[in-house]
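S1.2 Input.
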Amino acid sequence: MKVDDYDKLEQLVLDEEFKRGASAKSRVHLDEHKVTDLKSALVLAADYALTHKKVYSVKFNWSDHIGDKPQGKPGNYGVTSEGCQ
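S1.3 Output.
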């Protein structure tokens, strides 16, 4: 980026400061896309974070909860066909 006025210098400093605070993977992503302004960097970083978001699953353990397991066949979680037509 060629810096020939104060506004471009300010933009460059803001962009570099933003990248400094980003994760290494986000920083590489921003550099690969040659982002030149802060607004674009913010949008691209947010999109990257959402796309690469880790999803954690929680395994349900009945023994951690008050009461007994529901009655019925395993896997139906206590749902029976009584009263259904």
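S1.4 Remarks. The chain is about 45% helix and 0% strand.
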